[in-house]
Amino acid sequence: MPEKITLISDASEVRLDKFATGKIPAMSRARIRELIDGGSIKVNGKTAKPSHLIKAGDQIEIEIPPSPSGNHGAEPIPLTIIYEDADLAVIDKPPGLTTHPAPGHPDGTLLNALLGRYPELQEDGGDRPGIVHRLDKETSGLMVVARSRQAQAALSQQFKDRQVIKTYLVLVKGKVEPERGIIEAAIGRHPGNRKKMAVTEDGREAKSQYQVIRYYRGYTLLEVRIFTGRTHQIRVHLAAIGFPVAGDETYGMKSELFPRQFVHSHRLSFTQPKTGTALSFTSELAPDLTAGLAKLTPLP
To answer: Which one of the listed residues 136, 161, 202, 288 is annotated catalytic?
Structure first.
């Protein structure tokens, strides 16, 4: 049986998809849009578009189909666990591991690995049990995952409220100057290629902050903090200012030294959802990135 939720809007001039995602943080915005398009989310008893602007007092009816848990099989995929408690785990994701099933990647994902390690997630259900944020398939490093629906909702809210500090190590082509800077440029779908993102006037707000760690001949190693979590944000922002990420074939060019994009989730700080304790973790560069970096010539 589908789960039915009825909400009364407490906000005005807010998109329906954004409002519903905020109320059900365990469900992705893309999934929310699917439900809206399929007529499973209604405003005052009528179907609406994802972009429909709701008003204070509107009644939002949400009908959630049974969780497609049968499509998410548990798999014995090994994970490097940095930290673990009853509510969450912090993993060091290897490159090549997709976060969750998608067209072309029905299994062998981080979600399948989580269900194998934490079978209680299957019982909790949800669209993507345990997943509160994602890293690109070829990005390595730290991720936090939830072990219960309650923890998932709480951690998702921290990401939404921008209370989570996310810092990456990134190598780019060229000499980045000045040594510190902030990039504020909206990101949306590329107008000519729907598989890519781009800086666009009608995109969603995006903010990144960088600092030079070291210069190499032809390259710069950066520490990048992102304040928003847009798809491909770091890669798009840096390419937009003329410094494409090394090894990034989508927004830059192929590299003989780096078989994948040089982006590593280096530091992650957030609050334990139940105790309120501040947690912070660090992951050193993945071996393949370290090997490529060792072949570069550092500059004084």
So the answer is: 136
Report the pLDDT averaged over residues 284-294: 96
Pick the most confident of 42-46, 73-77, 118-122: 42-46
Question: In this model, does residue 125 exceed pLDDT 80?
Answer: no
Q: Do the beta carbons of residue 241 and residue 279 sit within 8 Å? A: no
Q: Specify the pTM.
A: 0.77
Domain CATH number, residue 149: 3.30.2350.10
Q: How far is CA 4 from the centre of its chain?
A: 27
Q: What CATH number is associated with residue 18? A: 3.10.290.10
Containing domain of residue 139, as a range? 69-160
CA separation for the pair 49, 180 (Å, rounded)? 42
Count of beta carbons in the 10 Å neighbourhood of residue 138: 18
Q: How many domains, the chain?
A: 3
Phi, psi (rounded to 5 degrees) for 239: -65, -35
The count of other CB atoms within 10 Å of the CB of residue 30 is: 11
How many beta carbons lie within 10 A of that of residue 299, not counting itself?
12
Q: Both 12 and 76 in a single domain?
A: no
Domain boundary among 103, 129, 160: 160
Q: Could you give the C-alpha distances from 83 to 76, 114, 281, 284, in angstroms and in order?
A: 19, 14, 9, 15
Residue 31 has pLDDT above 70, yes or no: yes
Whether residue 136 lies in the annotated active site: yes
**Would 287 be classed as within a structural domain?**
no
Model confidence at 25, in pLDDT bands (50, 70, 90)? low
